[in-house]
């Protein structure tokens, strides 16, 4: 499938009182990797909106294997694993020094028609075509 990576260096403001990255920041890290993946597909949020669809996240899971600490550099990989009926993206966070797996998770998004606000049970043709163009290369 199609993947994209981003490198993130944890910041002091990412930490909780226990001096590890606060759990809520992982969703932000996933978002950065997801946007890199959507840019690769040329179907990021502006293109989604212009095509007449919104793609809210309807499900998210995060498995915290090991904590992120300050100042740690990590690679966040987003991989598209389903696209025909919904958008499922798997995530993996790895330490940049030793490739240790630190966190994994996934998000599921569904297309919503922006005019009717109805959920689509199939991904829009414009999106499926963009994915299939990359898969055929």
Automatic annotation (TrEMBL):
Protein name (Swiss-Prot/TrEMBL): Acyl-CoA thioesterase
Cross-referenced Pfam families: 4HBT_2
Domain of life, source organism: Bacteria
Entry keywords, A to Z: Hydrolase
Xref: Gene3D superfamilies: Hotdog Thioesterase
Hydrolase among keywords: yes
SUPFAM superfamilies the record matches: Thioesterase/thiol ester dehydrase-isomerase
Lineage of the organism: Bacteria, Pseudomonadati, Pseudomonadota, Alphaproteobacteria, Sneathiellales
Keyword field contains Hydrolase: yes
Protein family according to the UniProt entry: Belongs to the 4-hydroxybenzoyl-CoA thioesterase family.
């Amino acid at each position: 499938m199609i993947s994209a990576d981003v490198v993130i260096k944890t910041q002091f403001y990412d930490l909780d009182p226990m001096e590890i990255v606060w759990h809520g920041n992982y969703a932000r890290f996933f978002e950065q990797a997801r946007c890199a993946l959507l840019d690769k597909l040329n179907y990021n949020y502006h293109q989604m909106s212009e095509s007449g669809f919104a793609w809210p996240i309807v499900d998210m899971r995060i498995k915290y294997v090991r904590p992120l600490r300050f100042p740690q550099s990590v690679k966040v990989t987003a991989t598209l694993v389903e696209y025909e009926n919904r958008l499922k993206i798997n995530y993996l966070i790895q330490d940049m020094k030793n490739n240790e797996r630190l966190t994994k998770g996934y998000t599921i998004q569904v297309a919503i028609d922006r005019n009717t606000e109805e959920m689509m049970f199939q991904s829009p043709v414009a999106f499926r075509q963009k994915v299939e163009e990359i898969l055929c290369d």
